[in-house]
Amino acid sequence: MTKSLSSPARWLRQEAPTSLKIGLAVTLLWVLAAALAPVLSSFDPIAIDAANAVLPPSADHFLGTDSVGRDILARILYGARIDLLMAVAGVIGPFILGTAIGLLAGYSGGWIDAVLMRIVEVTISFPYFVLVIAIVSIMGPGLTSYIVSLTVVNWVTYARLVRSETLVLANADFILAARVLGFRGRRIMFRHIFPNAIVPSSVFLMTDAVLTIVLGSSLGFLGLGVQPPTPEWGVMIAEGRTYLGTAWWISLCPGLALCSLAFGLSLIADGVAQILDPEA
Amino acid sequence: MKNTLVSVEDLTISFDTTQGAVDAVKGVSFTIKRGEALGIVGESGSGKSVVCRALLQLFAPNAKVKRGKILHEGKDVLTMSATDLNAYRGEKAAMIFQNPSTHLDPIMMVGDQVAEGLMIHRKLDRAAATKQAVSLLEDMKILDAPRRAKAYSHELSGGMRQRVMIAAALACSPGLLIADEPTTALDVTVQAQILALICKIRQERHLTLVLVSHDLGVIGEMCDRIIVMKDGQIVETGTTEQILTAPQADYTKNLIRSQPSLLPGREEHAVSDKADIVSVKGVSVLFPAPRKLADIIGRKPGHVVRAVDEVSLSVRRGGSLGIVGESGSGKSTLARVLVGLLKPSAGTVKIEGLDQGKDRARVIQMAFQDPYLSLNPSYTIAQTLSEPFKAHRLCPLSEVPARLKALMRTVELPEELLTRKSGQLSGGQRQRVGIARALAMSPDILIADEVTSALDVSIQAQILELFKRLQQELDLTLILISHDLAVVRYLCEDVAVMRHGKLLEYGRSAEVLRNPQTEYTQALLKAVPRLIESKAGNTRP
Hints:
The structure holds 2 protein chains of 2 kinds.
Chain A: H1 8-14, H2 18-35, H3 37-40, H4 72-108, H5 110-125, H6 128-139, H7 143-170, H8 173-180, H9 185-222, H10 233-240, H11 249-276
Helix pairs in contact in A: 2-4, 2-11, 4-5, 4-7, 4-9, 5-7, 6-7, 7-9, 8-9, 9-10, 9-11, 10-11
Chain B: E1 4-17, E2 20-33, E3 37-41, H1 48-54, E4 63-72, E5 75-76, H2 82-91, E6 93-96, H3 110-121, H4 126-139, H5 145-148, H6 158-170, E7 176-180, H7 188-205, E8 208-213, H8 216-222, E9 225-230, E10 233-239, H9 240-245, H10 250-258, E11 276-288, H11 293-297, E12 304-316, E13 320-324, H12 331-339, E14 346-351, H13 360-363, E15 364-367, H14 381-391, H15 400-410, H16 427-439, E16 445-449, H17 457-474, E17 477-482, H18 485-491, E18 494-499, E19 502-508, H19 509-514, H20 519-527, H21 531-535
Parallel strand pairs in B: 3-8, 3-9, 6-7, 7-8, 13-17, 13-18, 15-16, 16-17
Antiparallel strand pairs in B: 1-2, 1-4, 4-5, 9-10, 11-12, 11-14, 18-19
Helix pairs in contact in B: 3-4, 3-6, 4-6, 6-7, 7-20, 10-17, 14-15
């Protein structure tokens, strides 16, 4: 990691990769939008106003209204809160659990590794989406069950990434050097292997955040995610699907919002990958 | 001029990098005469490989030719059309590369790779091409060529792969052979065989040879004329005789002085007379070879590789032992046993101090071969060097900065480098950091495992110098592991020659090198390119 010795702000201006700058800008814009939702829009995202249903974009309603007359812009802004929360909460759990297990398996080897990797294989052999849906159905829809199901299903990817990286690092010359220098196992694991082993998975983390939002939206679309009338982009896209021919704005606007946030996060992933590459 | 095969005129090539455009080759002009052997010598970053690849219009995607021409029989190689280029490559000029294991296709039988060119350029059918490929492999002195032609590259040894690559390059009988470091990845005895093969083929086929190498010894042995390059420019051009005996440029003089075969031998009287600090008795290290599934089910015992086979030797306190051998000799395995990374399967290792309960890390330390791999890439130099002090509480935290500065002085590095990461250092600087890290523990014994083999010769000479100084000043016991007898002769009072895990010869280095007892040691000694020694004898200090 190229940490700046001067101020982070200066580093960001001068040395950060362009993709990281754009990605951060787009994502930050959505964070601000979510935080300032009440300021940016005076409409209530939940209250039904049947008189103004299915209005096309106009000076009053910049992005139009949906089938029950709610302002789409307001719902997108409030929805950003839910979707950003899902992105962060959905990857943190799997990342921590997966990294810990991958590190343990890769560094200790032997039967610990064998047992953990069989668990990984069992988990992976279930179709991803089916497993998520199963857990959500059992626990009932909502944010908690969404996070739990993702953690249970998604840690395996991180575990495998970190384990394979750990295996390579354990035989790297600088790890041998650390062993020759008589450092304890704990120091070698946390100071030398860990920071290098999480490089690929931290890049994947950003990409995964995108996938997680899409998954959350898909669940919303299926009625297993966030429940109406709470504004959530996936739910909004689903609600608009019957009006696609006549009122395109109901689905398209939250769809574009989802795309732009995904785009921002992907660019951050790209930039992080460039910074974390120790050769650069 | 009829005599000129290729003339390179004012060639300037730049690379687009993140730091902007960098000129790798700056206005280089030279000619290659028909039938001659031209050597291009230079250290890493000299642009020698870029120039020789340009002769075949092979460029990295970020390379750009800014100026210049390469005329082959009057035609400019750099502006050739794709069709002309295909005819030129392989039929007029061909190239062999440094690493035969990565330049052969792993999923194609080697015979087919030789035959491929014949089918494309000569329009031969498969049967005829294969037949000719086999005869080419025979010309390259590959035994049992019809069977070997059906092998894949991973089934062949390094030397064998290089022979295959030469066969493939010569398949369509090009007049010009360009060899880019053809023997650098090979053991010295194999290197000697490959060089002899290239020499013989050159005479038989009247080839024009361009040999690119960092090794002046190899170039001096093989070439009629030498071009010395540095930082993308030609420093000096002349006949081999001129360059080796009367170099004009300071750079060339330094390059010749740095040749390991020209390093003086260690003074014979300076031998430690203290008691043994390390004694190794009958040590063997066995590795189980991977077993076939059928053998595991049938409960057949697996094969065992004897990486180290009943080796006994000792080192006196303050003394120096060189362990010499080629790849697979077991020398690095033995080093790993000494530092405690591996346990011996049999035999005993006694290191003075360990039996009194002293921490092994404070008695014996090691510097590693590849300075690019042996430092944690995410650490600054200060972090790397301060870690031993912190982990072992060698001194109060407040003293660490002063200790680091002292260490940097010891290995002759400027203090400013402490804030850098290893990626921002040169190979030689990184190797010094690796040595400093080992010295941080103030060990009695330092093992240096091929510490100079990844470095340029002039850097190698400086690192060897450093070791010599450190040994005297710090009263270190030095165990040097190397494939290079000349390096061992320079630094070590004793030498042990290993092969296939066994100790072949062991004694005072002056004695062993003057009067080698085994054929293998004699072959090792002979294999070191030494023509330069006779030709350049009078430049010796």
